[in-house]
Amino acid sequence: MADLIENTVELEEDTLKNRYLTFSIGNESYGIEVRYVTEIIGIQAITEIPELPGYIKGIINLRGKIIPVMDVRLRFKKEPREYNDRTCIIVIDIRDISIGLIVDTVSEVITISEQDIVEPPKMNKGFQNRYIKNIGKVENDVKLLLDCEKLLTDDEIENLSEVL
Predict the structure, then answer these.
(1) Domain positions in the chain
(2) What is the CB neighbour count within 10 angstroms for residue 92?
(3) What is the pLDDT of residues 21-41, one digit of tens each?
(4) Torsion over CA: 22, 69, 71, 151 (sign)
(5) In sequence order, what are the beta bridge partners of 89?
(6) CB distance 45 to 59 below 8 Å
(7) How does pLDDT run across 123-161, given as a tens digit for each residue?
(8) Are 59 and 66 in contact (CB under 8 A)?
(9) What CATH number was assigned to the domain covering residues 2-163?
(10) How many C-beta atoms lie closer than 10 Å to residue 98's C-beta?
């Protein structure tokens, strides 16, 4: 029985391996590993909480669970944009906390093979984009693959946990 459970867990991990939920912020396409995603919902009423960083828009009540929401556009220091019917919240779990990521549009779930995933180019000394883990080549396009674990620092996660 234990072997069956272990094989099932490995099989689940294999089916999620190299699978990414893709979304857009402006003209850029991003991807996050499907294993982090719990659900995708439309934009809804957000309750603001004072003294949180500007990119944390507040909290939502998702079926009785309070979830902080981050505007990815603002986190990446892009111009704010009015939310519309295409705006979505991607709910992810990172380090024992659920957080909603507000994105312009969600595209699709795709598989990117290992050979089509490369490290981001090394930029100027001292410059490093901590949010981008890899770059996925998909046909004639590229997807910036995010490192979900680095979207929030340990301090930010601790502060959000205190608020919740």
Answers:
(1) 2-163
(2) 23
(3) 999 999 999 999 999 999 999
(4) negative
(5) 41, 102
(6) no
(7) 655 445 788 999 999 988 999 999 998 888 888 888 777
(8) yes
(9) 2.40.50.180
(10) 16
pTM of this structure: 0.86
Closest CA to 101 of 146, 64, 135: 146
> Which of 20-23's residues contact partners 24+ apart within 8 Å by CB, and which partners?
20/109, 20/110, 20/111, 20/112, 20/136, 20/143, 20/145, 21/90, 21/106, 21/108, 21/109, 22/106, 22/107, 22/108, 22/109, 22/110, 22/143, 23/88, 23/90, 23/103, 23/104, 23/105, 23/106, 23/107
At position 1, the amino acid (one-letter code) is: M
> What would you measure as the largest C-alpha separation in the chain, in angstroms?
53
Tokens of 43: 């934009």
Q: What is the 3-state secondary structure (H, E, C) of the chain?
A: CHHHHHHHHHHHHHHHCCEEEEEEECCEEEEEEHHHEEEEEECCCCECCCCCCCCEEEEEEECCEEEEEEEHHHHCCCCCCCCCCCCEEEEEEECCEEEEEEECEEEEEEECCHHHEECCCCCCCCCCCCCEEEEEEECCEEEEEECHHHCCCHHHHHHHHHHC
Q: How far apart are CA 53 and CA 70, in angstroms?
A: 9
